[in-house]
Hints:
This protein is mostly helical. 78% of the residues lie in helices and 0% in strands.
Amino acid sequence: xxxxxxxxxxxxxxxxxxxxxxxxxxxxxxxxxxxx
Length: 36
């Protein structure tokens, strides 16, 4: 279970990358809807 003992910095990086991914995903979805 060592994988769960992440450092706060690493966790923050993951959160940021997830946030970026969601924003990107959102814009792609909106582009799909506008394209229709």
